[in-house]
């Protein structure tokens, strides 16, 4: 792999993703990893990420100069570039000229910037700068505030840049990273979707042997792709379990039962637990209590299904759709695989021990989607927008009843249909439709007075759901949704638009 040494900026994961976009496998490792341990992994190259420190700060993380002696290609970015310069005998100074944001870069030869415009914009974020490159390095770029903004020593396969090539604001950055990987380090691009599938299938076969596995399907992208990979590897020794808690949107159960099974041929057990969930939720209004009840019931139902399957044959493996960002964010552990499953499924009891199979553990979300398409999953599953585990249960504001769910499901289906028809699916992150079940308002329809409920449209745009903005939907689309919902859904006589960003609002209403 190409190892990205994380110096504590938020950019390390992004660098790893960009490296993979250049079809080279990469992983993020903490900068505290000893050089010997790094080399033991036989890295094809090492990238030093940016970081919040100044190389002068007392606790500034250093780069062990031994790293540059091992013959492994190294690329330094921002802080990593300065740390590299310092370790190799160059000069880093606190000149007082800081550069933040868009900056013009002047290019002067070299392999990294070959064929790029002599002047082009890059994204900078630095206080200190390199004023003298280490011996043996050619200076290939500079900017107003950074006289040495790029250098390379092709003989030793060492190079670096002051700016951030990984961010979209450096329009030629990906090309520079690509040139480092392919031209300077001489790595062949082999990390393709097809190779990911082959590789994972081989790993799953090696792990599971002739054993049996189960997988809980949520209808979401991750569990679907994980299941499809395991199915490709072990065929009908995988059983998928889908819990219908009655809080799904229109067509979702059918989508799993029909489309997913048709695409994969997976063996599927659907547990119809609708009645059970309704009974457990009867009379409950408090959002946190609803969430707790839904979570608890879900685990009980899944646990029962797992127990039944285990009793029938020996199911020792549990498939989970854990993604690479979760692994990195929880400390990057190489992880023992035989963890008590209740740490992961959130409550399976001790006597139901499973060994985890996590085929997406090394993948980013966009790679997961590509793998899904490669495995033949339909777009409707692969490009599905996020939907919360507690489902419509937290979008009926007030007590959850069968009738209210029916009303919300109908309104939600119309909104989704119209948004899709308007080609807006890729523009919006998600658009919850919320039923204000305890609020009534007066309306007039035909000749009669109505006394119905409002629904709220909550279209949001977001990168990661941590923050969000309300999406400026075209008025004509809003109008179509409003007209159709009030005409077609008897209980609803008013459609309102939520124009709150997150923060202060959350995306869901409960
Ligand atoms: P909030 O409402 O916290 O939602 O702004 C952020 C994102 O998370 C989704 N969400 C959930 N997803 N289980 C989930 O799997 C949950 O309990 C849950 N609650 C919220 C929400 O749809 C949004 O994408």
TrEMBL record:
Q: Which reaction is this enzyme known to catalyze?
A: XMP + L-glutamine + ATP + H2O = GMP + L-glutamate + AMP + diphosphate + 2 H(+)
Q: How does it assemble?
A: Homodimer.
Q: What is its EC number?
A: 6.3.5.2
Residue ranges of every copy of the GMPS ATP-PPase domain listed in the record: 191-384
A GO cellular component entry from the record: cytosol
Instruction: Offer an example of a GO molecular function term for this protein.
Output: ATP binding
- Annotated metabolic or biological route of this protein: Purine metabolism; GMP biosynthesis; GMP from XMP (L-Gln route): step 1/1
Which InterPro entries does the record match to this protein?
Answer: Class_I_gatase-like, GATASE, GMP_synth_C, GMP_synth_GATase, GMP_synthase, GMPS_ATP_PPase_dom, NAD/GMP_synthase, Rossmann-like_a/b/a_fold
Pfam families this protein is in?
A: GATase, GMP_synt_C, NAD_synthase
Q: Is the keyword Ligase assigned to this protein?
A: yes
PROSITE patterns named among the record's database cross-references = GATASE_TYPE_1 (PS51273), GMPS_ATP_PPASE (PS51553)
Print the keywords alphabetically.
Answer: ATP-binding, Glutamine amidotransferase, GMP biosynthesis, Ligase, Nucleotide-binding, Purine biosynthesis
Q: Which residues bind ATP?
A: 218-224
What is the organism field in this record? Saccharomonospora amisosensis
Q: Where is the active site?
A: 78, 164, 166
What name does this protein carry? Answer: GMP synthase [glutamine-hydrolyzing]
Q: What does this protein do?
A: Catalyzes the synthesis of GMP from XMP.
